């Protein structure tokens, strides 16, 4: 999407420079503009769909698969936390994420949060999408990966996000990256390729 915006901005700058240099001349008032039929206008507008279409930018983003992941994850809200548990009645953080991906599409993402961080594709925070895995340190992990969740929603301006995860204090719950605890402990983002 950013390439398209840059291209559009460059096109507008070039057009503006033509006006400033006098290369564009005003048409005489006596010249009659041809009438454009409604269908021609619609066809012209359709030519610019690429400006608003994200299909080319998100080649690994499958909306149906992500919706299945989100449905599965949300169905476990309130499940209790238990260290080492892999579901469906109790989870630890990596048990929750691996259970969700396995049961929503048969995808094996790794067993531990460290394994999931190492096994899946790194993504810049600015390119984060719904369904990506987000990783944090935990009080017992030092500077290493110790916690994982699944992105629900991203604010592209602030790059904050909400995520669902198995919290040791609340069980399966939704949190926000702007919470000071998670802001300080954020490590990175990984995308599961299906």
What does this entry look like structurally?
- The protein has 194 residues and is α+β, with helices and mostly antiparallel strands.
- The chain has a domain at 63-191: Alpha-Beta Complex (endopeptidase fold (from Nostoc punctiforme)).
- It contains 6 helices and 8 strands, in the order H-H-H-E-E-H-H-E-E-E-E-E-H-E.
- The strands form 2 sheets. Strands 3-8-4-5-6-7 form a 6-stranded antiparallel sheet. The protein has a two-stranded parallel sheet with strand order 1-2.
- Strand 6 (160-167) and strand 7 (171-176) form a beta hairpin.
- Helix 3 (63-74) packs across helix 4.
- The protein is globular and about 60 Å long.
- Mean pLDDT is 81; it is low at 45-60.
Summary of the model, kept short:
The protein has 194 residues and is of the alpha+beta class.
Q: How is this fold's topology laid out?
A:
Layout (H helix, E strand, L loop, with lengths): L1 H20 L16 H9 L16 H12 L5 E2 L8 E2 L1 H13 L7 H7 L1 E3 L9 E4 L10 E9 L4 E8 L3 E6 L3 H6 E6 L3
Parallel strand pairs: 1-2
Antiparallel strand pairs: 3-8, 4-5, 4-8, 5-6, 6-7
Cα radius of gyration in angstroms: 24 Å
Binned, the helix content reads 25-40%
Major sheet: size, sense and barrel closure? 6 strands, antiparallel
**Count of extended strands:** 8
The quaternary organization reads as: single chain
Secondary structure tally, helices: 6
Q: Give me the strand/helix succession.
A: HHHEEHHEEEEEHE
CATH class of the domain at 63-191: Alpha Beta
Strands side by side in the biggest sheet:
3-8-4-5-6-7
What would you say the CATH architecture of the domain at 63-191 is?
Alpha-Beta Complex
Question: What share of residues are in beta strands?
Answer: 15-25%
Fourth CATH level, the homologous superfamily of the domain at 63-191: endopeptidase domain like (from Nostoc punctiforme)
Spatial gap, N to C terminus: 22 Å
Uncertain runs: 45-60
User: Which class best fits the helix and strand makeup?
Assistant: alpha+beta
CATH topology of the domain at 63-191: endopeptidase fold (from Nostoc punctiforme)
Can you tell me the overall shape?
globular
């Amino acid at each position: 999407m950013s390439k398209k915006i840059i291209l559009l901005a460059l096109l507008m700058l070039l057009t503006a420079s033509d006006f400033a240099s006098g290369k564009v001349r005003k048409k005489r008032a006596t010249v009659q503009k041809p009438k454009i039929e409604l269908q021609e206008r619609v066809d012209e507008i359709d030519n610019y769909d690429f400006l608003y279409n994200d299909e080319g930018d998100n080649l690994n983003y499958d909306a149906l698969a992500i919706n299945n992941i989100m449905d599965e994850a949300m169905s476990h809200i309130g499940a209790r936390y238990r260290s080492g548990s892999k579901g469906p009645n109790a989870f630890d953080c990596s048990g929750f994420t691996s259970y969700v991906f396995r049961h929503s599409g048969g995808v094996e993402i790794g067993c531990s949060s460290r394994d999931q961080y190492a096994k899946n594709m790194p993504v810049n925070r600015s390119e984060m999408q719904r369904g990506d895995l987000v990783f944090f340190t935990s009080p017992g992990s030092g500077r290493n990966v110790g916690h994982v969740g699944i992105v629900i929603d991203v604010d592209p301006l602030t790059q904050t996000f909400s995520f669902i995860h198995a919290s040791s204090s609340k069980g399966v719950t939704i949190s926000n990256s702007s919470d000071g605890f998670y802001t300080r402990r954020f490590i990175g983002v990984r995308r599961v390729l299906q």
